[in-house]
């Protein structure tokens, strides 16, 4: 992208969705090299939080990035019925969603908690999940006695409309994960 922008005298931008250099799945040395080389050339840098913006400014001496919070537009919630008027369920309905269902996202803790509640709760997990990891979670749910239902990934407009079906939304960011902490 940088080469194309230079060749065509175009603007270069970067949308930093996460604190990449500290992400456990990324090779820090490579990410740092890319960020050091290209962030200062960008005409536009956006980030999901002020904390990440501050880190990029401090580490790379760039102008403050634009903060774009990763939230859904409020008008999508207008279709939701007020919680007081929603039908009651026989079990507490817990809901977690993400683009990807994977380890280190707190889902294992939610399964353990749902298991501790017995048949008084059920956990709904929505997103894309590898078959092998789904099997790990299903085995954990069985051991813990948790009722867990996996739901497919849906478009964000449909996701918001579906949230009225659940009692509790779970945000399961794990302690010690600096990229998630800076994003939140």
Folded structure, characterized:
This protein has 184 residues and is an alpha/beta fold. It is 35% helix and 18% strand. The chain is built from 7 helices and 7 strands, in the order H-E-H-E-H-E-E-H-E-H-E-H-E-H. Strands 6-5-4-7 form a 4-stranded parallel sheet, with helices on one face. Strands 1-2-3 form a 3-stranded parallel sheet. Strand 2 (44-47), helix 3 and strand 3 (66-67) form a beta-alpha-beta unit. It is elongated and about 60 Å long. The mean pLDDT is 89.
Defining traits:
alpha/beta, single chain, 18% strand, 4-stranded parallel β-sheet
Gist of the model:
The chain has helices at 2-7, 28-38, 50-60, 107-116, 131-144, 156-162, 178-183; strands at 13-15, 44-47, 66-67, 92-101, 121-129, 148-151, 168-169. The chain contains seven helices and seven strands; from the N terminus they run αβαβαββαβαβαβα.
Question: Can you lay out the helices and strands and say which pair or pack?
Answer:
Blueprint: H1 2-7, E1 13-15, H2 28-38, E2 44-47, H3 50-60, E3 66-67, E4 92-101, H4 107-116, E5 121-129, H5 131-144, E6 148-151, H6 156-162, E7 168-169, H7 178-183
Parallel strand pairs: 1-2, 2-3, 4-5, 4-7, 5-6
């Amino acid at each position: 992208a940088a080469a194309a922008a230079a060749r065509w005298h175009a603007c270069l931008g970067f949308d930093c969705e996460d604190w990449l250099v500290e992400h456990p799945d990324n090779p820090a040395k490579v990410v740092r090299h890319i960020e050091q080389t290209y962030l200062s050339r960008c005409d536009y840098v956006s980030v999901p939080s002020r904390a990440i913006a501050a880190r990029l400014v401090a580490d790379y001496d760039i102008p403050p990035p634009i903060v774009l919070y990763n939230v859904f537009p409020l008008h999508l919630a207008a279709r939701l019925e007020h919680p007081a008027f929603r039908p009651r369920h026989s079990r507490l309905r817990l809901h977690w969603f993400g683009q990807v269902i994977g380890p280190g996202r707190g889902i294992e803790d939610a399964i353990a908690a749902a298991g501790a509640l017995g048949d008084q709760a059920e956990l709904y997990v929505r997103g894309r999940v590898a078959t092998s990891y789904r099997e790990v979670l299903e085995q954990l749910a069985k051991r813990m006695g948790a009722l867990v239902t996996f739901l497919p990934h849906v478009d964000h407009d449909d996701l918001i409309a579906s949230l009225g079906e659940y009692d509790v939304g779970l945000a399961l960011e794990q302690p010690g994960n600096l990229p998630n902490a800076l994003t939140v």
